[in-house]
Amino acid sequence: MQGLDIRSKDKLGFKNLELEIMNMKTLFSTITTFLVMTSFAQKEPVKVAKGHQVEIQTSAICAMCQHAIEYDLTFAKGVKSADLNLDNKVVTIVYNEDKITPEELRTRITKVGYHADFMARDSIAYENLPMCCKDGNHGTPKVQKPTPRKNN
Ligand SMILES: [Cu+2]
Fold first, then answer.
1. Above 90 in pLDDT, residue 23?
2. 91, 83 contact by CB (below 8 A)
C-alpha cells in the first residue's frame, strides 16, 4: 500500500489523466478490433428451400464484373443461383452443400479476378479483366484533375 503514497497529491491528477488515456486506448483498440473483425467477417451459410445459401463479399465494380462473376458461378457444380448486388458487391449464392462448399465458391470468384471475403483475387485473372473492371474505375473514387487557374 505504500506504493501509492510515493506519488505526491498533486501528481494524482496526472495519474488519473494517464488512466483516462489508457482507457481511451483500450476503447480505440476494441473498436478497431471490432471493425477489422466485421469487415473480414464471412456470413455463415443458411438453409433455404432449394439448399444452402451463402453471401460472399466481392470486389466487383460494374455490371460487367457482376455478369462475369454470376456467369462463372452458374457453371459450378451444385450452384443453383448466383445474384450479385452491385450496391454492396455481395453475391448471394444458392447451392447444394453436397456438391460444393463456400470455400470452393470463394476460390472460383478469386479465379475470375475478384476478392471473395477474406480471399484475395488471383492476380493473373485480375490482369486479364477489361480495363473498366480494374481498380479506380466506375464507382471507385478517382483523383480529380486539377482545374487550371485563371491569371489575375
Ligand atoms: Cu466491371
1. no
2. yes
Task: Please state which CATH number belongs to domain 46-133.
Answer: 3.30.70.100
Q: How far is the CA of 55 from the centre of ligand 1 (A)?
A: 19
| 150 CA from centroid of ligand 1 (Å) | 37
Centre of ligand 1 to C-alpha 60, Å, is 6
Q: How close is the Cα of 141 to the center of ligand 1, in Å?
A: 14
pTM tops 0.70, yes or no: no
CB count within 10 Å of CB 69 equals: 26
pLDDT at 55 exceeding the cut of 60: yes
